[in-house]
Structures are given as structure tokens and as C-alpha cells.
């Protein structure tokens, strides 16, 4: 246990609570320990997983327009920054446009991964933006969180790429978008990536890669529990399940028991029948107007949308 990362210290508590609930569930934020963050980076390179390359291409292709929307002197706040790969495209575009981003404030639950990402970003941008203030913040942004005082003139913009807003059911997503708006403040904006509703077969394939990386990512929840929550999961007794629910317009991921078994977590015993599952992730998909309406419920003004010719993914610019 690492006392400096309170989120990690409560995995055992949340796992016990989630396995005691009906239906059994766990927040997807627990995917992202060191091993899980590395597995997620591998997911992003998979042929079947179209969101990363589609969104990165959109950011590159429309970089000048996006930089103009972000405006000069903005400090970019990125909740769940992970490896901070996509923001480099933005920062370079802003710099090419003659603008000097005021800073970059990445927030992530996975502390060591974040600090390494911040170092890599500084090194990568040493040519273009050698003095850019980079202020990584290790935190669970779903918990109450006070951001450091803004830099420069205080103008902030949020960056929430990847379609991660899909992890939240619509009501929760509105609440999170409201929080982002409170952090950003008047005069700011939010650049947010949203995965679009599409052919269910295409969605299904993106979460059932033949390489088994997504399965390993899901099963890492149990491996992590064995590492840090005093649990005795037998990984071979579980399988990854991911499917599209048309009723909810979302991918659901579950971990499903292959047989009747009892598992112990932090001194608690949990019994599973063959086929019993634990719901580990939702990934909600939106039409463009559907997401704009959601953002408006949170008080954001939809200003621009960029999407690819195949209509796989959308990048929205919202103003506060
Ligand atoms: C990081 C939430 C956007 O929902 O596509 C990828 C996570 N889960 N493969 C997604 C994920 C399985 C991803 N987000």
C-alpha cells in the first residue's frame, strides 16, 4: 500500500462493496494501476480498437481550427491523462499557430505512470515548448478535488479525449461535465472526444480483440486484487465478456465465473455460481446531437464538432 495515493488504498474497500452489491460491479477507474495503464496503452495500438487512431487523426487534421478554438495563453487541464500522448498534437499545433500555451495540468489516478508521462512529454516538447509549465497532479478526479491556482491570466481549457465520458451513465456524465465546468470557469472551454453509435459488430470487435489484450486488461482487476487487496482470485476460473447493449447504447464489460467457486477478498468470502458475472465497465456511445444535448444539460454550449468520414468518432468543442 502507498499512503500517498489514497485511491489505491481503498481498492480493497471498493472491491468488497462492489462484490457485496446486487448486481455485482466495480468502477472502471480500478483498471488503471501500473500494469493496467500499460495494457490500456497496448489496447490503443490494436487494429480492432479504432477510437485512438481515429481521434488522433482528427486532432492532427483539424489542429489549426482546434488551436484557434482553444485560444492563446490557455492552461490545458486533462483529467485521466494517462500517457499524455494526444495532448502533444494539440500543444504543437498551438505553438505552430504562434500561441504560447500557459501550461499543462494532467491529472491521473496512476501516479508513477503519470510522472513518467509528464517527463516524457517535457522531453518530447523540449524543442517546441521548452518552458511550458507541466504540473502533473496524482489524484482520483472523481473524488472532491481542489485544482492548484491557475497560471497566467487564469484562462483554462479542459481536454478529455478518448471517449472516456462513455464510462459514465448519462446522468453521471452530466454531473461530471458540470464538475469540469466548475474547474474550468467562465471564458474557458472543453475539448472532448466521444465515441459514436455505429454498427454493433464494429463496436463488438473493438472490445473483443483476437490478441486478448482487452481480456487481459479486464482480468487485471483480479490480478490487482491479488496484489493489493489480499484476494485469492484464480484468473483461469474467469473469462472476459464484452457486448453491445442496443437498449443502453453502450458496450458492457463483465468478468464471468467459469465455474462455481468461492473467492476471498480482505477477509470476506464471496460465492459465485458458474456464469455469474461482475460488471466492470460501461462504454456509452452517442450520436452527435445526443452528446450535444447531454453537454447542454451540464451548462456547456456546444460550439464545434469534428468527425471522420466513416463517422466513427467525434471531437466536440464546448464553451463554458
Ligand atoms: C478509456 C473508457 C475510453 O471505453 O473504449 C478500452 C476503455 N475498455 N477497451 C473505452 C476501454 C476496453 C476505453 N476508455
Automatic annotation (TrEMBL):
It holds the Pfam family Methyltransf_33. The keyword rRNA-binding does not apply. One of its GO terms (molecular function) is methyltransferase activity. It comes from the Bacteria. Keywords: Methyltransferase, Transferase. GO terms for biological process: methylation. Gene3D superfamilies: Vaccinia Virus protein VP39. Residues 13-319 form the Histidine-specific methyltransferase SAM-dependent domain. PANTHER family: ERGOTHIONEINE BIOSYNTHESIS PROTEIN 1 (PTHR43397:SF1). NCBIfam families: egtD_ergothio. This is Dimethylhistidine N-methyltransferase. It comes from Sphaerotilus mobilis.
Amino acid at each position: 500500500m502507498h499512503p500517498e495515493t489514497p485511491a489505491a488504498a481503498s481498492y480493497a474497500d471498493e472491491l468488497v462493496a462492489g462484490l457485496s452489491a446486487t448486481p455485482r460491479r466495480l468502477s472502471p477507474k480500478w483498471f488503471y494501476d501500473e500494469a493496467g495503464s500499460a495494457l490500456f496503452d497496448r489496447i490503443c495500438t490494436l487494429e480492432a480498437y479504432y477510437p485512438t487512431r481515429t481521434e488522433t487523426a482528427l486532432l492532427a487534421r483539424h489542429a489549426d481550427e482546434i488551436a484557434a478554438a482553444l485560444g492563446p495563453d490557455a492552461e490545458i487541464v486533462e483529467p485521466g491523462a494517462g500517457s499524455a500522448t494526444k495532448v502533444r498534437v494539440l500543444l504543437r499545433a498551438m505553438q505552430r499557430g504562434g500561441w504560447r500555451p500557459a501550461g499543462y495540468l494532467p491529472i491521473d489516478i496512476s501516479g508513477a505512470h503519470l510522472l513518467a508521462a509528464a517527463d516524457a512529454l517535457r522531453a518530447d516538447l523540449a524543442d517546441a515548448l521548452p518552458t511550458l509549465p507541466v504540473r502533473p497532479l496524482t489524484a482520483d478526479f472523481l473524488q472532491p478535488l481542489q485544482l492548484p491556482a491557475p497560471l497566467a491570466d487564469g484562462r483554462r481549457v479542459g481536454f478529455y479525449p478518448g471517449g472516456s465520458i462513455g464510462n459514465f451513465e448519462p446522468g453521471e456524465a452530466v454531473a461530471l461535465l458540470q464538475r469540469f465546468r466548475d474547474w474550468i470557469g467562465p471564458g474557458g472551454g472543453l475539448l472532448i472526444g466521444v465515441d459514436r453509435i455505429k454498427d454493433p459488430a464494429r463496436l463488438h470487435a473493438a472490445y473483443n480483440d483476437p490478441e486478448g489484450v482487452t481480456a487481459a486488461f479486464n482480468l487485471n482487476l483480479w490480478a490487482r486484487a491479488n496484489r493489493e487487496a489480499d484476494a485469492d482470485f484464480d484468473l483461469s476460473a474467469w473469462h472476459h465478456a464484452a457486448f453491445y447493449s442496443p437498449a443502453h447504447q453502450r458496450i458492457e464489460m463483465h468478468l464471468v465465473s467459469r465455474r462455481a467457486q468461492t473467492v476471498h477478498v480482505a477477509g470476506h468470502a464471496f460465492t459465485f455460481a458458474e456464469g455469474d458475472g461482475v460488471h466492470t465497465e460501461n462504454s456509452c456511445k452517442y450520436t452527435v446531437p445526443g452528446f450535444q444535448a447531454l453537454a447542454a444539460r451540464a451548462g456547456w454550449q456546444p460550439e464545434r464538432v469534428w468527425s471522420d468520414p466513416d463517422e466513427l468518432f467525434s471531437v466536440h468543442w464546448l464553451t463554458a
